[in-house]
Structure formats: structure tokens, C-alpha cells
């Protein structure tokens, strides 16, 4: 069942904006996350902006309830509803529309603002592999996109700050570099591999389930294992070296996150 919101239009009549529910309960389609990443690349978005958009979409997909929104005023011209009916086979599917709204909101949250026309054109081209040429369809998409942006804000409780694992990974890489032989980072692509794994970690809903510092440790552990680099430990200590980075991360929990990260590639 879909939630709807009603707003006034230019001709004084109410219109209804249908708000889509996740197509899969507690499961995000990998293709939608790749859609966000591809669109973000075309928009030349910052890494954290794309990560934030992905986090928002995971939050949407894991939401138990859909919250209806009330638009104070219409952003569509009076003939947009008719145009929408004529072009309903085009436009963007529900999840892609939400993904575009996630990018729009993430850009504002990360101070990486996008021109809404460019965002719609990029999202449309990413999905259809062709340019959006119908001005009526553009206004229809624009109105729904702005409605979805407000809806997403309600889902996240109007929060504006989210912690990402990126800053933790930077600190952990610096710490581990001091523990390893001086030429280790020169001989192994640990930094590049870690950032690739971090980007791919956002394909999984672990980014909304696990603490960001725990994800950063798991990414680092995976990188070290793939490069066959062993971190030296104090032989008389029972503490694993990861405890020096994140004391509250249990070994079993670390294994679960590492396994979830590796499952992305299976």
C-alpha cells in the first residue's frame, strides 16, 4: 500500500503525490545503490555525498512504515498531471526516484549542492540511457522529487549529522602504518584497497546496522588479509591488535562484519 499526500495546484484543485514503499522488505537492491553511485559520478559528487545518499536509501529501504507528507504548495504546473499520465511509461521507477531524492538531500547535508534540473537529467539519463526532452515530464519529476525529499527528512527524523566510517579509516590506517615495517605501505596497495572496500561496503545494509568505527576496522582487516600483511602483536598480551583501535568491538562481531563485507563479492 502506498501513502499519499495532497496539495493545492495552480487551478485550485488538490493533487495527490504517491509515495512509494520499498519493493523489498529490509533488502536493498544492489542495482539501486549502483544507480546512486553512477549518478553521483556523473554529477561529480564528493565521496561522502554519495555515501550519505546511499545511507539514506538504506534507511528508506529498512523503514517499517511510510510517512505521508503534506505539500504546502504545488511545484508542478496545472497541466503536469495530464502530462504525467501520458508519460507514465517513461519517467523513473519508484526506487530510482527515491534514489534521486537521496542524492538531492545528501548534497544539502554534505554541503555539496546539486542543480535540481541537472540532477533530474542525470538520473533520467542513467536509467533510460537517453536525454530527458519533455518539459512537462521534467516538471512532473521535479514535483515528485521535492515531495520525496521532505518525506525522507521525516523518515530520518530531520537529522542533519550522520557519522561515516571514512574518518575512522583514515585514523586507523595511520595507526597501523606506525605498527608495520616502514616499507609495508609502499609494497602493498593497502590504502587503495581499503578505500575500494569502503565504497563497496555501502552496497550492504551493514552501514545502517553497524557502528561506523566497527565498519572501518573490518575494512582494514579485510585489506590486510587480502594483501597478506600481518600486524605484529605483543606475545604476552591476550588482546587482539584491533582492540587498540576500537575497544568495544568483539571478535565475533568483527568476524560477522568481515563476512558480510566479503559476501558482497559472492
From TrEMBL:
Residues 1-21 are annotated as: Disordered. GO terms for molecular function: cyclin-dependent protein serine/threonine kinase regulator activity. Residues 1-14 have a biased composition (Polar residues). GO terms for biological process: regulation of transcription by RNA polymerase II. Coiled coil: none annotated. The keyword tRNA-binding does not apply. SUPFAM superfamilies: Cyclin-like (SSF47954). Keywords: Cyclin. The keyword Nucleotide-binding does not apply. This is Uncharacterized protein. It comes from Ramazzottius varieornatus (Water bear).
Amino acid at each position: 500500500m502506498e501513502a499519499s499526500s495532497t496539495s493545492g495546484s495552480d487551478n485550485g484543485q488538490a493533487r495527490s503525490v504517491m509515495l512509494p514503499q520499498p519493493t523489498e522488505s529490509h533488502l536493498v537492491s544492489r542495482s539501486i545503490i549502483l544507480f546512486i553511485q553512477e549518478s553521483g559520478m556523473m554529477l561529480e559528487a564528493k565521496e561522502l555525498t554519495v555515501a550519505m545518499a546511499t545511507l539514506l536509501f538504506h534507511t528508506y529501504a529498512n523503514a517499517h512504515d511510510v510517512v505521508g507528507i503534506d505539500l504546502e504548495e504545488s511545484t508542478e504546473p496545472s497541466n503536469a498531471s495530464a502530462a504525467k499520465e501520458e508519460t507514465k511509461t517513461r519517467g523513473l521507477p519508484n526506487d530510482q526516484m527515491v534514489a534521486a531524492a537521496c542524492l538531492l538531500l545528501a548534497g544539502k547535508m554534505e554541503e555539496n549542492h546539486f542543480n535540481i534540473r541537472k540532477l533530474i537529467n542525470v538520473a533520467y539519463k542513467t536509467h533510460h540511457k537517453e536525454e530527458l526532452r519533455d518539459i512537462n515530464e521534467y516538471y512532473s519529476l521535479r514535483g515528485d522529487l521535492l515531495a520525496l525529499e521532505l518525506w525522507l527528512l521525516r523518515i530520518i527524523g530531520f537529522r542533519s549529522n550522520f557519522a561515516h566510517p571514512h574518518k575512522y579509516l583514515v585514523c586507523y590506517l595511520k595507526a597501523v602504518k606506525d605498527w608495520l615495517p616502514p616499507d609495508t605501505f609502499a609494497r602493498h596497495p593497502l590504502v587503495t584497497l581499503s578505500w575500494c572496500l569502503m565504497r563497496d561496503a555501502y552496497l550492504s545494509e551493514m552501514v545502517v546496522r553497524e557502528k561506523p568505527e566497527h565498519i572501518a576496522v573490518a575494512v582494514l582487516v579485510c585489506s590486510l588479509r587480502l594483501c597478506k600483511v600481518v600486524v605484529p602483536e605483543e606475545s604476552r598480551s591476550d588482546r587482539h591488535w584491533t582492540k587498540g583501535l576500537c575497544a568495544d568491538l568483539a571478535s565475533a562481531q568483527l568476524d560477522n562484519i568481515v563476512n558480510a563485507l566479503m559476501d558482497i563479492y559472492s
